Amino acid sequence: MSILLYKVALLMYALATLMSLVAVVRNRGTEGRRARLLLLLAFGVHTITLIVRYFEAGYTPVTNLHESLSFFAWALAGVFMLFDLQVRMQVMAAATATLVTVFMLFGSLMPMQTQDLNPVLDSFWLPIHVGLSFLGSAVFTVAFVAAILYLLQERMLKSKKFSALHYRLPSLETLDRVNYRCLKFGFPLMTMGIISGAVWAESAWGTYWSWDPKESWALITWFLYAALLHGRLTVGWRGRRAAIFAIIGFCFLLFTFLGVNLLLPGLHSYNSMSG
Fold it and tell me: Is 230 exposed, middle or buried (0-12, 13-18, 19+ CB in 10 A)?
């Protein structure tokens, strides 16, 4: 049942993405509102999918690549909609919906069957650690989208070559503010995700830190965002520099999430592309 619901959610996300892109091209508020409503409905179906998957599997469904991509896409959609309540930006909605659809599509290419749970993962720390980590990553993904749009807008303003997209993009101040707000929310979530993982590791393996590849890259990524936050608070970093840091941080985040799990052997690695 969860597999069918997943496919329905994927289709709805794809339609929401298409409607969002059309709304950007036509620059019509009515179509934008419809696209947001469809995104909300897709998120609702996706939420039901995760709940059904939980009862089918008997554990929090975040233990293989398909489930992880599904949960991350769900977190990204939910986090974006929370930000969108305060600052409505149709271009950002279209970009984020596209990313959600890509993650869902990638997840649909992985085997979707439930698997027996590894005894090490049979812990109440699983939803806490993964939930905090993925929520932090989702917030930073929104920051990445805002940073990309910032650089596009800045380039057009400096070159004084304005395409139709320029008039649909938010102001530089708005995009920079979204970037900073994401940093303020995402960094504590990432920090708590790392701490909860260390506590879980101590209870499972008898050590808080083993320098597993996933742990090492997560720490590197944490230092990058820590440097950005420090620069924001003490040096006054903003604008282009902050946007570039947000993009670099997301690249490290994505490698930590997917690259390390698939390419580097370790305690957190998937056995294969099948999860």
Answer: exposed
